[in-house]
Amino acid sequence: MLEQRISRRTFLKGSLVAGALATFGGKLVPLEQAEAAEATSPAASQVVPTICEMCGVKCGILAHVREGRVWRLTGNPRDPQSSGRLCARGNAGTKTLYDPDRLKGPMKRVGDGKFQPIGWEQAFKEIGAKLQELKGRYGPQTLVWLAHPELISPLEKHFMAAFGSPNYTGHGPTCYSSRNVAFEQMYGGVPGVDYRNVRYYIAFGRNLTGGIKNPDIQKIVAARAEGAHLVAVDPRLSDFAFFADEWLPIRPGTDLALVLALINVIINENLYDAAFVAERTVGFAELKAGVATYTPEWAAKITGIDAATITRLARELAAAKPAAAVDPGWHAVTGSQYYNSVQAARAVAALNALLGNLGARGGLAFPPGIKLGDPSSIMGPKPPAAAGPRWDGAGSEKWPLNKAHGMIQVFPERVKEDKPYPLKAVVIQHLNPVRSSTDSGAFIEALKQLELVVAIDIQMNDTAYYAHYVLPEATYLERYDPLMTAGNKVVLRQPAVEPLFDTRGAEEIIAGLAKAAGLSAYFNFTLEQYNDALLAPLGLTQAQLARVGVAEVEAQQPDYTKLKTPSGKIELACQAFVKAGSTLTPAWEPPLVEPGEDEFRFIQGHVPMHTHTTTDNNAYLHAIMPENELWVHPSRAGKLGIKTGDLVEVASRVGKVKVKARVTEGIHPEAVFLAHGFGCGVPLRKLAYNKGANDSALIPVITAPVSGAAAQCETLVTVRKAG
Predict the structure, then answer these.
(1) For position 699, which CATH number holds?
(2) Would the pTM of this model clear 0.90, i.e. be above it?
(3) Please, what are the averages of pLDDT over each run of 10 residues along the chain (723 residues)?
(4) Rounded Cα–Cα distance for residues 208 and 200 (Å)
(5) Are 322 and 421 part of one and the same domain?
(6) C-beta atoms surrounding 677 within 10 Å
(7) What's the number of CA atoms in the CB half-sphere (13 Å) around residue 431?
(8) Fewer CB within 10 Å, N side or C side of the chain?
(9) What is the pLDDT of residue 15?
(10) Alpha-carbon span 264 to 29, nearest angstrom
(11) HEC per residue, 569-616
């Protein structure tokens, strides 16, 4: 394999790394100019427009190909996501394509950590036979499909529907479930922030420049340059807290109290948008009564943020309305960190409503809608209705609001209990729950109990390492996928090069499994036919879209006067939560656990140069950050005799890890922080193996009420210097 000749220094110049925000100033090159430049190259070359998959944002990119090799990736200036610019991860994509440790063909487990190559047809035949056997013995619901939802997810769900199982589950409970449940019930969907035009912005734990979404960070950087005021509320001096105008190091898990106090001030001082509240919301009187006791003085005792600061924030936020926004969040405070995350998300939703910012410039917005075609006519007969409830109870009477998100973290418990029915088989696609869910040890034990574990991925990750069969997917630079929409544009992923090894696109793998499992009638179509059916109302075909990569089409703007809620308005008081066992309006709930004198609250999160557990073996990104460190405040580290660089043991009630310490004032004294995505336990991934610590090994299974999210930061740990 040829080695890409680029120095780390040169690479960093073209990437966003850890707060190197100035790198967004690169020149935008029109596609036609890029193609012309390639045409003048002495070697045969071309520029292929496609979609990145180095994270979940899916920016449009240009793959520069010379003599059959991708030698460079740049942002596609026609794409509304990248706008011609890429982050560090996007620039590093060639090292994923040419990773010498990536999977090169189907593998069958023959012992602990031992696999042998197997042909595709034999793999399909054996897996299909086992699926049919298990279906006959236990029913179709015995199969669970776990995935990080990607562009291929409609075909994954189609497979499960055809098989007769209701058990398709995404990673949402470890990421965004609480936020989604709150906004879905109150707003009818999850809006985003108009980052480009916001004038006053508060992020509760949202590390916007750390857990990078390329289009969002480009816009917030531009907004700040034009005078937007940015406030980071976070127990840690995150990348975004460093970039923001203000950092408020709040006590971890108490953000809800601060949001409730902001609502209290804005209502009591009549700072809210009265016309908007009257016309576009219901339940204001109930909200006002509900927050009456949540004063700044009350919140100050809980959060550690003084009352004067809370009052000032509320007044400044309201003064900037409607170009003011509190971020709905993602993984952090409102997503999946605390037992009170759904209440925090509800409070954030209510606070934004008081600002009258939904649909306003600089406020919250829903994306426009593009009317795509219905491909069901080419996808075979209508699948029968699934028999029985979901494996995790999502959508049941106990969990009525989270059917779309599920509860992946309870998988080990359900396997062990055999309730509500036996789970004997799992397909895991583009996901690594052994290191991305909770309690790694329990997940490994669950996998060992199953009769069939199939992993579909581009790499031998920690979960695939325990699979019976590992089916290698082609990388995003080697395959087609179902098309995506972004704003008023449709975008196509297409291969820049032929697959380097004996790998296949996910649609081929799913179709192969389906036919081997007796479901041929449901997969007698090609991916091109599927995309053509989606594009038909737009007068386009996949072949036409492939030539340009991105096409602008007619899109329908959202109707903010008629939301997808029972009232058609924002529901500040929401009966759906009462029926789910919660309160009518957002209310204070303390964190589930509190650290004792010798304990810390364990918090974790993302970094800008890695994506979950998928990039730690990428040579460029590994060079930037090869391992994580445990952040400890000096006041606590001194008592423990710990200095920066010392190896420490971190222990919770479910596991222990050893990792290097980083002593810093950038962490609240009550907490320690560990970046997610390290501690790979697979020796086949040579760069990542045993680098840093796996945070998931420390996190017990705690399921938050109402949303069913995994409350990952309700974890207490002890720290000591390792012997």
Answers:
(1) 2.40.40.20
(2) yes
(3) 28 33 28 47 79 96 97 96 95 98 98 96 98 97 96 98 97 96 98 98 94 92 98 97 98 98 98 98 98 98 98 98 97 95 98 98 97 96 90 95 95 94 97 97 98 98 98 98 96 98 98 98 97 97 96 96 98 98 98 97 95 96 98 98 98 98 98 98 97 98 97 98 89
(4) 15
(5) no
(6) 28
(7) 25
(8) C
(9) 35
(10) 49
(11) CEECCCHHHHHCCCCCCCCCCCCCCCCCCCCEEEEEECCCCCCCCCCC
**pLDDT at site 45:** 86
Considering the domain architecture, whether residues 288 and 377 belong to the same structural domain is answered as no
CA atoms within 13 A on the CB side of 652: 27
Taking the C-alpha atoms of residue 521 and residue 511, their distance in angstroms, rounded to an integer, is 10
pLDDT value at residue 309: 98
DSSP state of 26: P
Are 332 and 460 in a shared domain?
A: no
The label of the residue with tokens 């490994």 reads 444
Counting Cα atoms < 13 Å in the Cβ hemisphere of 113 gives 5
Per the listing, tokens 């001194």 go with: 638
Q: Residues near 473 by Cβ (< 8 Å), separated by ≥ 6?
A: 430, 456, 457, 458, 479, 503, 504, 505, 506, 509
Length of the chain, please?
Answer: 723
**Apex 523 CA angle, 521 and 526, nearest 5:** 140
Residue 361 belongs to a domain: yes
DSSP, collapsed to helix, strand or coil, labels residue 174 as helix
Among candidates 486, 514, 478, 436, which has minimal Cα distance to 695?
436
Q: What Rg value do the Cα atoms of the chain yield, rounded?
A: 25
Residue with tokens 């709905």: 328
Bridge partners of 47, per DSSP, are: 64
**Whole-angstrom distance, CA of residue 446 vs CA of residue 329:** 31
Residues 389 and 331 in one domain: no
For the chain, how many structural domains are there in total? 3
Q: What is the DSSP letter of 667?
A: B
Say yes or no: 652 and 711 in one domain: yes
Structural domain containing residue 295: 177-367+560-579
Q: How far apart are CA 113 and CA 432, in angstroms?
A: 16
Q: Quick check: is 280 in a domain?
A: yes
Cβ atoms 342, 254 nearer than 8 A: no
What the block records as the tokens of 549 is 């990569």
Cα–Cα distance, 569 to 395 (Å, whole number): 24
Looking at the fold, whether 531 and 397 belong to one and the same domain comes out as: yes
Q: Are strands 143-147 and 168-169 parallel, antiparallel or unpaired?
A: parallel
Q: E strands within 43-174?
A: 45-51, 60-66, 69-75, 107-111, 114-117, 143-147, 168-169
DSSP 386: P
Nearest to 68 by CA among 499, 414, 376, 374: 499
Which residues are CB-neighbours of 471 under 8 A, at least 6 positions away? 106, 123, 454, 455, 456, 504, 509
Assigned token pair, 11: 């690479």
